[in-house]
Amino acid sequence: MTQAKWTGTRRSFIAASAAVAGAGALSACGGGGGGGGDSTTLNVTLANHVWTDLITKKISEFEDDTGITVTVTQLSEDQLVDNYKVKLNAGSKDIDVMMYRPLQVGKLFGQSGYLLDISDKVGDAGDWNWDDFQKGPVELTTYEDQTVGVPIITESEMVYFRKDLLKASGLDVPTTMEELENAAKTIKEDNSGTAGIVMRSQASAAVTQFSGFLYSFGGTWIDDSGNSAIASAEAKEAYAFYGNLLHSYGPDQMSTDMSWPEASAIFAQGNAGFWIDASSLYQNVYDPEKSKIADQVGFTPFPAGPDGSKPYNVAAWALAINGESPNQDNAWKFIQWATSPEMTLEIQKEGVPSARTSVWDDPAGTESYPEELAEAIAKNAENGVGYDRPRVNGVAQAREIVGGPIVAGISGGDSDAAADDANAQFQELLDGEK
């Protein structure tokens, strides 16, 4: 844990190791003191992340421009969640700006009233330009038609492929599910000991990557009435398709206990033609120090199913304002500054993928990415869905339930029957949350 301070005029930066009781903290402090009720002092809680490392280096600029003193508490993800649950549940006023994971706690925090409705603020922000933010991430930082967060880091569903294997088999890069299946089949048949495709196979872990298949086949997790939709005809077709891809064209001795590290390792070792997973993981197969086939890795947008190409495009992290903060106007000033077009471009140049469309259109915003990857990410954003798992309070339990039919299909079992069983369990969870 590190405690860092901007002291005096905030022109010098001093970093030293320190022990602080409870959670670790990183403080960016100016000349003033005071707590959350002091209109010139802002308490900001952030997660350990490269985005945080970059933004904290620039906070003195915000302080100098506004006269506001910023105190930053920086925590690990687990510490962050525990800290929020204790403080926000108690109605604490000593958090103003909060970095949070919409996928994990968005519904719970929205339902609990922890997050300030900033709909009017984003709508009246002028050149800051709320319309510049991608549809999928915005969907995830919206709760019951209220904007409650601003997305800062994104992730989408990427198709990675071996250029050399496609060329050797005379295959075009697939753009549809049918073409993907045919290419995986052909590569496995043409290359002894090489899988046509590898993806996550463990029930909970696979849910996120399965989601794009579910949406592209016309399915969803929860219908408009708030009931389980995983036993619909569309969902069953998606479960069967994903399961068959790995059962028929996956690695020999196919395991049903793989998450992304295991799947990416198989691809990076040259033992699969395709790998589908998060765009943020690309260095694991593109970096020559990590991958035997780095020079042959290609990137392409998610293929179209019967309902089009609908990969997930999610806000991995977002900024929000504590609903109990007495310093909401200054909190919004900080969020505007940290997510401005100019700051977003600066941070994306360092390799942190943003939710703003403009930085993906700007060559300066994509120069640190492989060209094909940047193009695929931008394409995925056009029709991306803003969540990659059921939007419930009990996310972990839900993932285990809805992931069951995936494993059944991969194992060669009856994924339709498994979907019916899972549907009943998932409905019980939904009823309990109502």
TrEMBL record:
InterPro entries: Bact_solute-bd_prot1 (IPR050490), SBP (IPR006059), TAT_signal (IPR006311). Keywords: Signal. Pfam families: SBP_bac_1. Residues 1-21 form the signal peptide. The keyword Ubl conjugation does not apply. The keyword Signal applies. Coiled coil: none annotated. It comes from the Bacteria. PANTHER family: ARABINOSE-BINDING PROTEIN-RELATED, DIACETYLCHITOBIOSE BINDING PROTEIN DASA. This is ABC transporter substrate-binding protein.
